[in-house]
Design a protein that fits this description.
The protein is an all-alpha fold. The chain has 3 helices and no strands. The protein starts with 11 loop residues before the first helix and ends with a helix.
Amino acid sequence: MQKENVETYITESEFMELISAAKDNDHEAIVKLIEIFKPDIKKISRYTYLSEEDVFSEIIVEFLEFLNKE
């Protein structure tokens, strides 16, 4: 059975709406953004000395801090 390569495509305006909603503490928007970036985070984790879970956690924490800066 082959793995299906599923990528999420959204428009720039949809992305900006998600960022805005996430900054307003919309949990669904935050989860959606994390899901969008999950494949990229997994790719990045291959090039570090940390485990995939640690890299994922670190990036998510930084992302959440970014959203809460304002």
